[in-house]
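Exercise 7. Given the encoded structure of a 104-residue chain, write a plausible sequence.
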């Protein structure tokens, strides 16, 4: 997956609620880092899908209880904070920070 922009083209790149849908999360984060200038911001946020943080988890649980098969996103594990931290660390000279805040 490549982003059709030159290196260091942006001040920031954001991936909201997407990391678990991309085919190769590590490549996507690396591409985001490539197109952001040094000192810029590369960020994402996601629900903790494996940890039950999906907003419709109760509905999914009930559907599973009655044997309804629910397709999952291709990379659900990529939404775990430890996996996301590793993705950012491996993408290059970025500093992974954890912000675990619930906002209403």
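Solution.
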């Amino acid at each position: 997956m490549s982003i059709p922009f030159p290196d260091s083209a942006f001040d920031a790149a954001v991936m909201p609620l997407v990391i678990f849908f991309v085919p190769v999360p590590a490549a996507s984060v690396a591409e985001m880092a490539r197109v952001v200038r040094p000192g810029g911001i590369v960020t994402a946020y996601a629900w903790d899908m494996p940890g039950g943080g999906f907003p419709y988890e109760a509905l999914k649980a009930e559907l599973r209880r009655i044997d309804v098969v629910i397709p999952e996103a291709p990379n659900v594990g990529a939404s775990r904070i430890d996996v996301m931290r590793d993705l950012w660390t491996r993408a290059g000279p970025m500093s992974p920070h954890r912000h675990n805040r619930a906002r209403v």
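Remark. Residues 98-104 have pLDDT under 50 and may be disordered. Students should compare their own answers with the one above.
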